[in-house]
Here is the input.
Amino acid sequence: MNNKLFVYGTLRNGSIQHYVPQVAAYIQFIANGFVYGKLFDAGEYPAAIKHNEIKLYGELLEIVPDKLDKVLMVLDKYEDFNVQSPEQSLFIRAITEVFTDDNQQCSANIYWYNNNTESLKVIEGGIYRK
Here is the structure.
């Protein structure tokens, strides 16, 4: 199972300690980077969907391998992702390609938005700031 995680919103910039402190010790920063996706402002948090041409910027993190199941369980709850019923989840955890600032490429987990984005405002430039 993949132990890398790409974050683009409320869990960036060390905010993991604030939002999910119970697993923060098991997650470390690897690099800044981007994925191909479109970013929206959903109010209290950003929402991203896959897109083939637009860059979405964030951070590549690594989860301690022997704590992976525990960390993903906590993050799934935080992101309102239900493994048993993904179609009813607010976000869906998936694997995506990440391109880092130091020209590396790898696969990582990401939480894509699973609702309609028609009424949401696009965040131009692909960087969430709050």
Q: What stands out?
A: Residues 41 and 121 are 5 Å apart (CA to CA). The radius of gyration is 14 Å.
